[in-house]
Amino acid sequence: MRFDTVIRNATVVTATDTYRADVGLSGDRVSAIAAQLPAENSGRVIDATGLLLIPGGIDVHTHLDMPFGGTTSSDDFETGTIAAAFGGTTTLIDFAIQYKGQSLRQAFDTWMTKAHDKAVTDYAFHCIITDLGSAQLEEMGQLIRDGVTSFKLFMAYPGVFMLDDATIFKAMGQAAEHNGLICMHAENGGAIDVIVQRALAEGKRAPKYHALTRPTTAEAEATSRAIALAEMAGAPVYIVHLSCNDALDKVREARDRGLPAYAETCPQYLYLSIENFDVPGFEGAKYVFTPPLREKWHQEKLWQGLAKDTLQVVSTDHCPFCFKEQKELGKDDFTKIPNGGPGIEHRLSLVYSGGVHGKHFSPNRFVQLVSTAPAKLFGLYPRKGTIAVGSDADLVLFDPNHEEVISAKTHHMRVDYSMFEGIKIKGAPKTVYSRGRAVIDSGKFVGRAGTGQFLRRQAYSGL
Ligand code: URP
Ligand code: ZN
Ligand code: ZN
């Protein structure tokens, strides 16, 4: 048998197994896994001794080329997927935004145009719904059939993205009927807005007030309400960017009752805290994203949530804005700082470092959190999210002992700072394949814009 590539002596790590094998790639796919594969006639032979071979990471929460807060996120689908690939992420699910008065199809078409000649790795879309009349409600079923099988709704950002409970409930009913999945931004936007207005009236304008005006109770209340609405609608619900123990408790209670409630957290909530605002001047704007940073003790609760399956996924909520000129839009008023932070590049390294080296969970659980559970929940499995004969050859050769200090000086995201500046990681991708093609080879980018494909996802079928 001839292979385009044979990876020899790999330690294959999936969500369930760890074993030594040779892995053969033919075209887009994994075509053989065996104790030893003949390499004589093969195109390329890679010796993976000492490295882990894991399925490509799947980041289900990114915002590339997204207009927000009076500006546009600074990574587009080319720079964003390149940075993702450097970090071992070979699939991302971004958000197509439906603006008021638009059809859902318009949102989908707009984001397809943004991505199609730029992405270097594969991508899919959720649809953010901001205006749900009867026509758009009807359209949800069609979008699911077209492979956009999940929808993000907001309980925050009144006047921009926020939907009322009746509309959320209707959307959940429709999702339940067509096997879609509702992803919820769970914060009580009404209460937060009152607290924000009070702070501004008291002259509190510095970046840290973004965090101080969004209490954990507002996140917990909305999480609980989202779960209750989903339960009444008979729908599954996926809580995005969960940041605190109060909200975690609500997800745990729901799951203990057997409800199909799921949640993700992000590396910023595992590594950063409210203490990051103790920096001079306007520097704190680097940490303005939503939900905000919490007190440090929440971090360990979130790690435990990942270990015990209260949390199923780690995504990034990558939404980069440069400090110069973009974050600076809010120099005199924290409500004008574009909300979001950059993180697409370091998710695998941060989760491996803190999760596996930090002794919170095994390498298999790491793979489950960054690749397999995202693939299963969002209709990409088994094409993505595992290493098996017939699966896409989205693969990462991962050095579990590589040490590095994260810095904006060396990262590949198109943004002028790092949220994780100075943090030491242990474990990093070396070589990354997207459908059998190397996109990162021993730390160098060797991919090409436009080679990433849109992925039509399957309907929700559980985890
Ligand atoms: O601050 C954030 N998270 N910006 C992106 C939009 C969102 O709510 O996910
Ligand atoms: Zn959100
Ligand atoms: Zn987001």
Automatic annotation (TrEMBL):
EC number in record: 3.5.2.2
InterPro entries: Amidohydro-rel, Hydantoinase/dihydroPyrase, Metal-dep_hydrolase_composite, Metal_Hydrolase, Metallo-dep_Hydrolases_sf
A GO cellular-component term linked to this record: cytosol
Keywords: Hydrolase, Metal-binding
Cofactor: Zn(2+)
Modified sites of kind N6-carboxylysine: K152
Amidohydrolase-related domain sequence ranges: 53-439
Gene Ontology MF terms: dihydropyrimidinase activity; metal ion binding
Description of post-translational modifications: Carbamylation allows a single lysine to coordinate two divalent metal cations.
Enzyme class, UniProt record, top EC level: hydrolase
Superkingdom of origin organism: Bacteria
Family according to the record: Belongs to the metallo-dependent hydrolases superfamily. Hydantoinase/dihydropyrimidinase family.
Protein name per the record: Dihydropyrimidinase
Organism: Candidatus Acidiferrum panamense
